[in-house]
Amino acid sequence: MALFIQQVMNGIMLGSIYSLVALGLTLEYGILHIPNFAHGALYMVGAYLTFLLAASAGLNFWLSMGLAMIALAFIGMVVERLVYRPLMLESPLSSFITAIGLIFVFVDGALHIFGPDFKRFPPVHTQVIQVLGTTITLQRVLIVGITVSLIVLLHLFIKKTRVGSTIEATAQDREGAQLMGINVKRVRLMVFALGTALASAAAALVSPLHLVHPNMGGPVILKAFVIIILGGMGSIPGAILGGYIMGLVESLTGGYISTSYNEVFAFALLVGVLAVRPTGLFGGR
Amino acid sequence: MDKTARSGAPAWLAPLLVILIAGSLPLWITSRFYLHILIMCCIWGMAASSMNLLMGYTGQVNLAHGAFFGIGAYSAGLLILKVGMSFWPALLLACAITVIIAALIGPVALRTKGSYFAIGTMCFNVIVTMVIDSWEELTEGARGLLGIPRPPPIPLPFGLTISFQSLAANYYLALVSLLITLLIIHRIVRSMTGRTFMAVRSNEELSESLGIHAMRTKLISFLISTFFAAWAGVLYAAYIGFLNPEISDYHVTFELLIFCMIGGLGTLGGPLIGAVMLTIVSELLHGVAFPRLVAYGFLLILIMIFLRGGVMGGLKRVGVRRGR
Known about the structure:
The structure holds two protein chains of two kinds. Chain A is an all-alpha fold. Chain A contains eleven helices and two strands, in the order ααααββααααααα. The model of chain A has no long low-confidence stretch (mean pLDDT about 85). Chain B starts with a helix and ends with a helix. Chain B has a two-stranded antiparallel sheet.
């Protein structure tokens, strides 16, 4: 029982990270139809930036995370403007190729600047909490807490602000939104700022537990694509739920079946779901 | 259609020239390094062209193409090393095994559309690589398959033989395979079957209303496409002589997709041009002090932004402007 609770806790923690990354991606891919494979590379940049600010410049961890999010929001907008905007009217495959180009630039660039070795964060919140007979570190609790707050904030932003509702309108009907005078170019910039900031937050949150290295975004972005297809393209609740499903599947199969194969189950899950429901769990029609 | 005819030359002239030049290359290129690059250009060009049939002409973005390349390569490697089969029957059987696997997953995978098909097949690709990596009793796992021999000589009448020990002979084997692939794809695309592929590409629902069986059409294209991917994989296995799980990785798929897009998706020569160009570029970049992959990344971005429709798209625009 203790093992089960421990694995569920881990799954929820992992799922929080996946949800944050998938949220940004479902906005970029599901709504704007940009298969932004470079989302994982930007996640990695966010981790390095947080690391530099916290470990090298000695700033407070949460302040570093916030600053990195702001910086990454800006980088996200620059990427959209320079690399994806010119391909706005081309097929998504063109954007896919430039996304792979961006991965080469960011990952190989990071490899040359920071070196191939893993960076370890100074421990942040190592206090231990007892929950239902198992122990977890405060950092893991904070990951879940902050993820939930960020999701609530995103929800409020989209539902309650004017700018947020332009994103929702574009998601529902792109041409309709344009006809109503919504500036789709501004929506694109906003979506990239939001998505990249969320990815940076996810990377900063998980870095003290895992390690920071140039290729850390690769496995995460693959899973994020799986999650948004699982949850239905462009669906925000789908991305959140898909993220937690993915986290739980990975952690439970890792705990009970095999730690070396647990990645297979995550991918097999989607293949299985698509075999039964070709449009994903929550996809319409 | 006949864009070369517009500028005065018959349509068969350009391909004929390319074949003549490609065929005569080993006569004046003797450097082993350059011959190696030429062979790799043929193998990657063949794999990218096979991907193009399904993706470019039928509109289905199959992100498991590298897996089928790897399945073909591994099937041949295992048949030759563990069963003791000779190269030529192994080539046929490896292609057959790959097509059978494709026929098993195709009907399920092709029910999904667009992004769902792309990401679903990408998952399949990841699973295939993990299976090859962890099924050590069969595939030797991460250690890989070592020492796959080159094809044995073909005996001819009058005591002559075609031996595959020299690089030039291996080049001709890869070149002939590539030309067969391109010829068959060309014949398919110009046939009624090819028209149905393109009808499904432009609008699946509409094509069904015209009486086209979209699922069957996509499946036929999928199977032919994986057949040639497997063939290219077998050539790779026998030429390089060593296989490890990375050869089936999704990075290979992405690489092939890059070749198609840079050269020009949905054109006969595009994927080959992309493969040749980028294989040469990445070899040339080896000597550059600047981070190689950063430069490669920038190159991909710049080509995509400034050369819409890839190299073939660029050539077509030049042709149209001249024609006016």
